[in-house]
Amino acid sequence: MEIVTRADRPDLDEQAAVVFRERWPEFIFHDDVPKKYLARVEQFFSRYDIMVLDDEGAVVAGGWGVPLAWSGKTEDLPSGYDDAMVQAVEGHEAGTPPTTLSFMAAAVSSKHDKRGLATTVLSGLTQRAREDGLTHVIAPLRPTWKHRYPLVPMAEYAGWTRADGLSVDPWIRTHQRMGARILAPAARSMVIEGTVAEWESWTEMAFPVTGDYVVPDALNLVHIDRETDRGSYVEENLWVQHA
């Protein structure tokens, strides 16, 4: 296995895109904040955008994060994924020294499950953060199984544990096994809005009346307003901090 940055190997962009998109619902890619900030994230923070290559040089996993200034106090956490991205970019442009790396996403090819590659990605990013003198590592997690319980608040879901004391959720467990502890819900982590037709296209569902809908792979309900022709989704994630 080899770890490289995407900036080092732009020839692998298409492979990396396949790995990153295959497990995410389509609506996730229609958040307006990344549309405004992601180009600058790629420009400023390429060191924290990595891929794992197998022995044949194929992309099998990847992940990225952003450095930002955080006090270490739970009450000072960004509101979630979107806000972490905004704070990182605007902080960099303002010359504010970062103290913290926030993991933003990690993905493993479905052909390479159960090999510990997510841990490889997270460990690789953590090592870079330590080398750069950052003192905290945090993440606004999108728990793997939370979409099965869209009516359950994140704070309650985060407290569900197995007999061994670890979370019932596989993604939370991955972080716990690396020494992470749960901090708090990220109540407004991502906000995605679109027309009713767009939401029907993104989800392959029909939304015939105004109301709140359970949508596959959505962690929370999606609100559809037929009168104003708008659908809105506010996703709650979970902040964790690595040791």
Sheet/helix structural class: alpha+beta
Query: How many helical elements?
Result: 7
Strand content: 25-35%
Rg from Cα = 18 Å
CATH topology: Aminopeptidase
Number of strands: 9
Order of helices and strands: EHHEEHEHEHHEHEEE
How widely separated are the two ends? Answer: 25 Å
Counted up, domains total 1
Low-confidence blocks of residues = none
Shape: globular
In CATH, the homologous superfamily goes by the name: Gcn5-related N-acetyltransferase (GNAT)
Estimate the mean pLDDT confidence.
94
What is the name of the CATH architecture?
Answer: 3-Layer(aba) Sandwich
Assigned CATH class: Alpha Beta
Sheet having the most strands: 9 strands, mixed
**Helicity range of the residues?**
25-40%
What layout of secondary structure does this protein have?
Blueprint: E1 2-5, H1 13-21, H2 32-44, E2 49-53, E3 59-68, H3 81-94, E4 100-108, H4 117-131, E5 136-141, H5 154-158, H6 170-177, E6 181-194, H7 196-203, E7 211-213, E8 222-225, E9 230-242
Parallel strand pairs: 4-5
Antiparallel strand pairs: 1-2, 2-3, 3-4, 5-9, 6-9, 7-8, 8-9
Helix pairs in contact: 2-3
